[in-house]
């Protein structure tokens, strides 16, 4: 009866199997989980993993996006389209509503709203009594994430205490929480940027168009390319060039998509997933180094934001 | 790693490094990442700046594995960090844990998912107390492959005789202690992580060594389940019942979802459901609702059975004829992870596969001195202690010995008051 296992799973099959296992553990252990879906490439991969984990059933959790109001229209449209195609419930909670409530106060009107998503997320967790949030963070993204658990415990204030994390052994994940506390679960913790692109290629996943090479007006600001005159879904124009700034029309793509004022594109001709995979293999700049302006404030800025409830 | 070329995918290998900063552990990891071209220019720039700021002439590759803010201030690493690199044929996950005695729990944590351990020895110092500790822990947690890396060969003039003496010493030590005496694969490499000798590139300074480089060994090491005869073990995580679907064909769909801990499964196999003991044949094996030919070890699948059997999360599907023991009392090696000592008076929770049960300590047989492997009498366990213990359980576990099956031999202990994971157990 005993069989000899001779075949090795490919690295993508292994990563996928691990991610499915983690999602099912969340579904099996938690009462009210939610999957955070932004329309970005990592969360698009998570949706495919969720299909493989739970189809032909429905997902045992809704999808949720914390919208800063400063997201690219292409991404927001894609988010809505993908949720509809899957027939899954999408909850959107907006940083702008938190601003109206007075729980988010911007220092300046054009400040990046990225870090303020944490407040809106905590408000949504309280509103729906979520006990687990499934997120697409990866350990290769940033130093503070390299030690993050797959199941990361957050106290009633949503805070991450790097000194008070549960040891995580074998694949025995502990997602138990008391009322008011929650778990952040990261099924694709062990994926790298390259794995994500290879998975997108293998699974033929559709992506928002701004991930592919396109023409865009930019200015150089603080050593990075800043997209200008970006039209939001509301019709509002964001990032009007300042006096004296030279507007260049460049061929670019986005490696990450997020809050517009803190996400810079990279110069690229790659207009297919295949070309992006090749470009990712030969790039000399890390994903966040190239594109996330908010991580450059200080060496430990991600860690600081995580302590405040950020992913 | 071109998308066009169809390079054989040799899967994924998880390994850990055992050693202290003094052994050049961080340099070894930094060197592997650097030589496999995993380090990108901006990261390299950052560590160049830091190296210069600290008055160092060359780039300090150990800075690549630098950790969290509080730890940076203390200048030490106090947790497990995970690093990634790929050679194009294989993807690697490195678990980086500190090697000091007070961090036994972190070593055990890192070891629990490792297929291979690199045990670092400083060539100037030879086999030390910490080498014994690391070797014992790698043995205890049953890491299938062990590489003993004799590092800093540059500081002993690449002397073959000294290397041979360290190897002989080490072999004598493990023979005496009975470590790795189960035919486990052990390899020895002379290297210099600082200069890159025998890590990725073959050393010109040590032409006397004709064996594989570290990367050669990593590339060739069989993954944990390869080539082993293993019984089929399928702990059920979740039951898929899409009866509210508009599709009437799905009305009777009942899919048992989980990850195959060991063995394989295909249509027609006769399975036994535990604990109820009922049998049925496999009707289909699926991923995402699509049939696959065979479910393999470590694959997450959905199993459909021909008969309707009541099965829920925490149950286990196994092949009839290779049913594991059902135990309400277990003996185990336990590593205590919590600052609060293990209390014989309290009731804990034990998580084993997908099953959770209440558990009470029945006794501590002995504690192990991790440095000498001597057995010490004990009634209490503090953080980082390792002991042979007994538990009695409210519900039976379907377990194999940890030495035979890591997936069905391992458990964690949970403190219900704060839900913390406080112990890591290996069933004997």
Automatic annotation (TrEMBL), chain A:
Residues 289-311 are annotated as: Disordered. InterPro entries: PAPS_reduct_dom, Rossmann-like_a/b/a_fold, SO4_adenylTrfase_ssu, Sulfate_adenylyltrnsfr_sub2. Residues 302-311 have a biased composition (Basic and acidic residues). Its EC number is 2.7.7.4. Residues 33-265 form the Phosphoadenosine phosphosulphate reductase domain. Keywords: ATP-binding, Nucleotide-binding, Nucleotidyltransferase, Transferase. Pfam families: PAPS_reduct. Signal peptide: none annotated. Gene3D superfamilies: HUPs. GO terms for molecular function: sulfate adenylyltransferase (ATP) activity. Belongs to the PAPS reductase family. CysD subfamily. This is Sulfate adenylyltransferase subunit 2.
UniProtKB/TrEMBL annotation, chain B:
Keywords: ATP-binding, GTP-binding, Nucleotide-binding, Nucleotidyltransferase, Transferase. InterPro entries: CysN_GTP-bd (IPR041757), CysN_II (IPR044138), CysN_NoDQ_III (IPR044139), G_TR_CS (IPR031157), GTP-eEF1A_C (IPR054696), P-loop_NTPase (IPR027417), SO4_adenylTrfase_lsu (IPR011779), T_Tr_GTP-bd_dom (IPR000795). Its EC number is 2.7.7.4. It comes from the Bacteria. Pfam families: GTP-eEF1A_C, GTP_EFTU. Residues 10-225 form the Tr-type G domain. It is an enzyme of class 2 (transferase). SUPFAM superfamilies: EF-Tu/eEF-1alpha/eIF2-gamma C-terminal domain, P-loop containing nucleoside triphosphate hydrolases, Translation proteins. This is sulfate adenylyltransferase. It comes from Uliginosibacterium aquaticum.
